[in-house]
Amino acid sequence: KENEFSVLEGFYLIHETIGRGGFAKVKKATHILTGERVAIKILDKAALGDDLPRVKQEIETLKFLNHPHICQMYQTFDTDRKIFIVMEYCQGGELFDYIVQRDRLTEVEGRRIFRQIASAVAYCHQKGVVHRDLKPENILLDSENNVKLIDFGLCANSTNCHKVELETCCGSPAYAAPELIKGERYIGTQADVWSLGVLLYALLNGFLPFDDANLGILYKKIQIGKYEEPRWLSEGSKNILRCMLQIDPKYRVSVDQLLNHTWCQEGSQEPLPLVDTDDSMNVVDNDVIRLMAANIGVQPELLKSRLSLVNYDKYELATYFLLLRRKQKTGVQIFRRCGINID
Ligand SMILES: O=C(Nc1ccc2c(c1)CCNCC2)c1ccc(-c2cn[nH]c2)cc1OCc1ccccc1
Fold this sequence. Notes:
The chain is of the alpha+beta class. Helix content is 39%, strand content 16%. Bound molecules: the ligand O=C(Nc1ccc2c(c1)CCNCC2)c1ccc(-c2cn[nH]c2)cc1OCc1ccccc1.
């Protein structure tokens, strides 16, 4: 029996399992060349069965999403039995646990988290991707409690995602928009905004706006769209929730309008990442390229051309991404200490 991890030998050190999803196992690992922590999602092809297309869908989608609040895919490859997806390490765990541990978040913390989620969703919508399964379980946190959106297995990609109508009813009922559970054709971006409303409600209150053990009653409550506004909610937060939890999608805000809502603008804010243009998918950070090129003894231009085929099956691309993240976190001086002169 081939050791299922032999394909990783020399590139990643595998540590303990940190989580089990439906058909995935997530293991802590170390990217050997940089020493950076990563998470490796391991899927068994046989166990996947007809869920295999969902995994392929997630991999293809993650290949063109590159955003600080979307869990970054660094490399992916498969053996005859397994699929490996090397992901960004999110040691803060699930947002769901973060809320439960605190009962509910303060408005300041809730706003910080919500703005990061909304900026990730706005970026997806600009790229023609609708997530369709937004909920606290699909939002992880990194070591500084910054948001990392995961699980694009149910997402739909299309160039005109703002207009194309979808029909597959998916996602978790409590976060599903009224038009989606009615089985009507719906616009994915509008359904995502409803889920963002349910998410913000859960962040600020610690419980769901629409909830019932009986699915039929839950559907009724969602279609009626009436929910409790606890006394601790400020006028601003009640207002932004109403903008999202509109049962008629025609009256629902877009995620771009959300980010400009006064509630989101309140307080001292760290600047939101700009929605990147396509060039961020090209390999352009010259500090990282020069460091890597010096390290492996090739011309920077040759390395850049090798990496510009961003198809995630190369270890060097994972190296590039991890060094870029390290530079974003700690600044260029970190490379000087690597003892390699990159001037
Ligand atoms: O790095 C990830 N998780 C993760 C890493 C370290 C720690 C924790 C969690 C919390 C548990 N205590 C130990 C610290 C991690 C990264 C990516 C993905 C991922 C990306 N697409 N799909 C899955 C999943 C991940 O995990 C799942 C998880 C495990 C335990 C709880 C909560 C979540």
